[in-house]
TrEMBL record:
Domain GGDEF: 363-501
Transmembrane residue ranges: 14-37, 43-60, 72-93, 113-137, 149-170
Stated name of the protein: Bifunctional diguanylate cyclase/phosphodiesterase
Biological source species: Massilia suwonensis
InterPro entries the UniProt entry points to: Biofilm_reg_signaling, EAL_dom, EAL_sf, GGDEF_dom, MASE11, Nucleotide_cyclase, PAC, PAS
Domain called PAS: residue spans: 200-276
Gene3D superfamilies per UniProt: 3.30.70.270, EAL domain, PAS domain
SUPFAM superfamilies: EAL domain-like, Nucleotide cyclase, PYP-like sensor domain (PAS domain)
Amino acid sequence: MLDVKDIFAWRERIFSSLLSVVLVVGTLSTLAIVPFLIQQGKWPVALADTVALLWIFAVWRLKRLSYTVRVLHFLGVVFALAIVLLVSVGPASMNYLLAPPMIAAILLSLRPAMLAVAVGAASLVGLGAADFISLNVPGWEHDALKGSLVAALNYATIGVILAITCSSLLKGLSLSLADVRTFASTLETSEMALRNLNSELELTSEAVSRLNDMVLIARASDAGSTERAITFANDAFLRRTGYTRDEIVGQSLGILEGPETDPAVSARISQAMLSGQPCNAELMSYTRNGEAFWVEVEMVPFTRSGERASHWVVVGRDISERRAAAAAIKQLAFYDGLTGLPNRRLLMDRLGALVARSDPDGGIGAVLYLDLDNFKDINDARGHAAGDALLVHAAARLGQAVGPNDTVARIGGDEFVVLLDGLGPDAAQAGRAALEAAGAIRTALGAPLDLDGQAYHIGASIGVALTARAGASAHDLLREADTAMYRAKAGGRNGVVLFEAAMLDEAQHKLAIARELAQAFENGELGMHLQLQVDRHGAPAGAELLMRWQRADGTMVRPDLFIPVAESSGMIVALGQWVLRQACAAWLALNQAGHPMPLSINVSPLQFRQPDFVEQVRAILAETGAPARELIFEVTEGLLIEDIGQTITRMHELAALGIRFSIDDFGTGYSSLAYLKKMPLYEVKIDKSFMQDIPQDLSGTAIVQSILSMAGHLGLRVVAEGIETEAQARYLAGHGADMQGFLYHRPMPLAQLIERLDSADLAAA
């Protein structure tokens, strides 16, 4: 089949083939007929054939000439040969004249063909009229012109018919070739598009098959039906679920659901699919082996324009790790890591909800604030592992002691909170129910507990607050329960206290005192007064520094109000350092005035237990230059309750500096006589509560006498506080005790004390 792009190329190929055929045939015929023509004396014909053959050969060789020129030359050769043959041979050669129009119509166009017809017809008329050829017509034998015209007319008629026929045929062929070419181009384009589409489909299929996301294609069901047969499953789906493609194709999408799949989510998906709407969901799905896993699915209908969905494309992602991480984050955010109980954040959410629904009609709730008693002792003695184990057991017992609708939370350390709901509409009844629940909790906690072979009893101080107070917020209730808990702890521990408004007033008053005390310390409103201590002869034997607070308006704040607040707030540490500096400065001033004497200061247990307390004392002594041997640290018996070993070690370190120690309020707290001889004590101070009725009170006198006797055997100085009567003074003087009290001296500023001492010296002189 010829590779023809257009009619012009086709004509060129035909002309080239025609020249080749003419040359071959012409050469053979010329070689055969020329000798005969010469023998017959028709050398002009022989010469014409030879010239025509050479001319055609030249046209065949001269390919650099344009196509049209070469065709015209060829037509000229044929036309010339036709004329020669007409003249030489006669009208029998007239058919040669039909060749140029036909060849022109085929190789050029209709116009050159018609011109060739005209030239041929004119040649016939000219040759016939000139009698070069005989074109006789019956009846006009003697009129050559008319015969020539008739022959020319016939020739022209046939020539035009043949030219038009050939031209029309070529034109139709050209149009057909154009149509074929267009069709071939369209077919080629379509084939390329189809090939590309197939490649894209193969690529898409391979890509979908290799996606990490799970992909399913399911056939859309008829209206009202829930069966959607799976028609495609990619490799990721098969890997995750364990199904083979043969097992899953044809099955319904419902095969992936199981007992933990949320029915509400399944119903929502089914409704979306029935309505032909895309949807997203997270649901529990199942593998072939029944393993549950979380999957996030996106379901999209496949529809053609104007038609209902034929298929559903389901894309799923395994979000088990994400859900597990979210659950872990939620656990960390809302639950205690040790006990698994709700933490403070979740507690406040539930407490807020409890407050919101607690009203006289809906029932009153309660907040129970628990603090485990002496938990620090277990941590210190057995380590934090034992403490954590105890907390876990306590949490479990709390959960067993309350109802299923109640909340148990751990809010830090050894503190727990229990929320009770539905205690009834009556406040008194709700209070009794809350106290009963608190008692049940104490009983549950107090059951014997064995930890690594050691028996423990868990005690707890519990504060109870009711939600009955109008306008109380969740934070208010928690604070009220906390306040009641501290009242229970102060009352001896392992008790239950129901919150009363007065407790909050007291707590708020303490908070106000703490704020004012901090400002007073910064503003210099605190000062130190000194109270003399005298020997049995009434002579000064030392002095105790006592802190006083005088507000800017001149009013005084009693020490028994602000000292406990300083202790509970932790300010006592900073105040204690300041007091030590004041004592050093006071001794230097007394020494400068000629009245050197030992000075006693009170040291808080909290300050004494500071890790760097010894270094603080050493630094202040070095800074002020005061002698350590002139300072007496008064400590209470409460210091001896916790970590007695470390306490004694630290007392010896301070004694090595020269500090002397006194046990203040001796006999009012816990004292182990076995430890007294291990401590570097200098004196004991008898509390004023024992001095009130001596010597008339025989019991009190016996206690004082025992203390004096013990101190004498241990070589300790004895100072009796609160001496206000002569009878008390005579009794104590008779037993060799030093005394301190209003009978001899009231606390006063350092300047006044120096004045008084100076006056006493002048009087003695």
